[in-house]
Amino acid sequence: MAATRRLRTDVLVIGWGLAGLVATAEAVTAGKQVILIDQEPRTNLGGQAWWSFGGLFLVDSPEQRRMGVRDSLPLAQQDWWGTACFDRPEDLWPRRWAEAYLDFAAGEKRAWLRGKGMSFFPVVGWAERGGYGATGPGNSVPRFHITWGTGPGVVAPFLRDVELAESSGRVSILPRHRVTGLISNDGAIRGAEGQILAPSGAARGRPSSREVIGDFEISAGATIVASGGIGGNHDLVREAWPDRLGTPPERMLAGVPAYVDGSMMRTAADSGARVINGDRMWHYVEGLHNIDPVWPGHGIRILPGPSSLWLDARGTRLPVPLYPGFDTLGTLAHLRQTGFDHSWFVLSSRIVEKEFTLSGSEQNPDLTGKNLPLLIRSRLGKGAAAPVQAFLDRGEDVVVRETLDDLIAGMRALDGGEALDGDQVRREVEARDREVENAFTKDAQIALLRSARAFRGDRLIRTAAPHRLLDPKAGPLIAVRLGIVTRKSLGGIETDLDGRALGEGGGAVTGLFAAGEASGFGGGGVHGYRTLEGTFLGGCLFSGRAAGRGAAAAV
To answer: How do residues 159-178 score in pLDDT, each as one tens digit?
Structure first.
């Protein structure tokens, strides 16, 4: 074993995802020397954000106004409070972070990002539509702004700034440095220690070895934990699973790489930081097995439009307002009461063509590659987009048939399909189709479809015109078996608005800061119980900026 490597810096940043990159760039801008470390090989710079769809929450943006959307800070506040449902003493700082973040999203956020060279797809998406009333959870208006370039486009300007600082000697980027403890001196955090792992040529997101070849100690005036959440560690997810969401699933897909293991939150807690709201989490219920997996159990989420008929494992339609894209956590809680880890979409090819998008940068080559001709062909042309078609052709969760009887038989042939009541599926499909034949209806989903198409963005690329699923001209029929995909921790290290980690007594842990998912995207849980979407990347940007500036000011 080599001798312990000892280094010194002004600011140490642990974790090189989006929050860590932003924090590093801000500390460098403030004139500080920074060491940025991560346990993975350098191929993973950008962390989870690189894989994302690149959605950002903005309030009263030019993109919204051009689409005829009237948004405002008071409306966004109404939606956030109705969604977060803050109800604990521990929500003091998360609530303050939410207030500050909403001001940011309605204020300088867009101009700041535009100044970094970022731009946005002109059609604003409408995620988490709610359906419970004006003061309930969900977005009253479309606010999901897709970055031109998706996740890599969000990461790029901050990675560029960090690598420029590296070339000038102001930043040292150290891959394969795994932290095992924080260095404490008289109650203050003065850096970190850990193990140096063997070099690895693993591609982005792929598992890397844990062979130890040395040790390190890094002394720092300020240390920022930006190491992500627990979504890659399903044992920890089940351990934290709250009773309000039912029993933990036996089988889950992994929406994040295996290295998202939550280890640094435990390390920070061992050094005096308070970790709060660990039972709050965000997982998706529209997951597919990836046809080209990168990490173990790799799941891809469907970003559905609102038209698919959603059935539980037995074939019973989900209750109002648990429609695709309306209430992720409400749907998860309902499905956990059914006794099964899967559910079903039943839909037509016409709906797939208009409404199906797969989450992630790699599943959207048109947006990620900033390829306008490809975007026009894939989003506005006939047929499903190529990545979606690949899943229709090769996906183990997809059944495509010409008739409903054959579709039901295909569903029953899949693992878990034996629970399906074919007669119930037929009743649900035929009853739904009868409701479409008039301009008026008692079916709330159909009424909401017609309402959604009043928004130009939905009518253009996200919501098919209501039609009978059994209309031969809309076929063939499609069924999709949906699994649960782990994604985000909504709780984390409690922080003040400068990103300083707080201890059990409420005072700051001197020298320690946190950002990104490790801090619950700000304060230890800025989202409360659930999110309005487009707020994870934004939370990394905002909390990383605060922690980088706060750490620089503390040195």
So the answer is: 999 999 999 999 999 999 99
